[in-house]
Amino acid sequence: MEEKKAKLEAALFLSEDPIERKEIADVLNLGSIGYVDMLIQEFQEMLEDDHRGLELVETAQGYELKVKSSHIGDVDHLAPHQDLNSGELRTLSIIAYNAPVGQKHIIDVRGNRAYQHIKELVKRGFISKEKDGRTSELDVTDFFLDYFNIDSLEEFKELDQQEMHETL
Prior knowledge:
By secondary structure, this protein is an alpha+beta fold. It is 57% helix and 15% strand. It has helices spanning 2-14, 21-27, 33-47, 69-75, 86-98, 103-110, 113-124, 142-147, 153-167; strands at 54-59, 62-67, 101-102, 127-132, 135-140. The strands form two sheets. The protein has a three-stranded antiparallel sheet.
């Protein structure tokens, strides 16, 4: 059982996106979702101890490890911008590059998972979402600019262009 929890922890640590229960069963070579649920519950309880720095969070897409909010202020400088998962960062970058942009366009580009990314980005204050007919218009906020230490969207787009030229 401890070895399975260790493998679960390793999988959650390495995964860029939340992991669904079925995928956990596959990674751990388990046939029973019930056993996966029991393993997740035990692992989650283990992380709830005050001396642990991580927590297991269930999202609409699955499970992921996050730094406990009580510790984030002490360690966030070590890995700037890591409090957003890679899917959220990709969605945010497309929104920022095209802002203001219709939500439908983002969903067309990123797929249905982007709905959850958008919801989280709005909740965290990175983007604003205003109803516009049958869709919503998405735009970045001042918090986005402050968080990434940029003065304007134009500066963001220039940085993106510079990085593309440097990699070619």
